[in-house]
Design a protein that fits this description.
Layout: H1 6-16, E1 20-25, H2 28-41, E2 45-50, H3 51-56, H4 61-74, E3 79-86, H5 89-92, E4 102-105, H6 112-128, E5 132-136, H7 155-165, E6 169-171, H8 189-198, E7 203-205, H9 213-222, E8 224-229, H10 231-247, H11 254-277
Parallel strand pairs: 1-2, 1-8, 2-3, 3-4, 4-5, 5-6, 6-7, 7-8
Amino acid sequence: MTLARTADVVSAAATAGEGVGAFNVITLEHAEAIALGVETAGRSGILQISENAVRFHGGQLDPIASAVVAVAEQARVPLAVHLDHIEDDSLLRQAAGLGISSVMYDASKRDYDANVMATRQAADWAHEQALWIEAELGEIGGKDGAHAPGVRTDPDEAFEYVAATSVDGLAVAVGSSHAMVERTAELDLTLIRDLARKLPVPLVLHGSSGVADVHLSAAVSAGIVKVNIGTILNVAFTTAVRDRLAADPDLVDPRAYLRSAREAIATEVTRLATVVSGRQP
């Protein structure tokens, strides 16, 4: 299977009235587990490398991107590679030529006019490189800002933002929050439907780890297309490592506990890829 392009994966999901899981990668084990998980589910997917993940790897994008792209190239289902929550313009411009086919440019901490200006410049550059670009208006819950918990995306403002920036996808605030470890978020399905009708681009749900399976399915049915998932994978990873080490306190070979962690992530991804697709495997 050849490396997929995010634009094609997202477009196919939108046309089919389905969602596509976009899973965050921190280590090579994450990427391998995500690939195995979506293969088992028989679904396409997106491997996401965040700016924070790049910082964890010493600020070097090329090594982790090359590894993730290699995993995607060998997958038996379409897998695309995405650069997520990029605030650093220099890092944004490193995306070209690495096999990455999309970026999420995050100017959400800026005021509206500054966000529009910076995002439009990023979109112009991305389109010159044939990259699909996602952005965020305000801030998704879990941060300070316009879209803190309890605040929602305004459809009219979102329409104006998309027109002014020419982005290809928009992350919307509809009740989820980043970094949740409990799946208790309540989504505003009426707002999602209104946004889906109003906007000419696919809707992206951030903070999906805090949303229960039944509500993720409902969100996709209401109009969400790209579903970003990260924290719940790390919970599975860390729990598996803790359990493996607790069971064998003398264990020193990291392959043993990382294998358990990889298997735990793969199991989560298989379920979630199926849930957000809206179909049974």
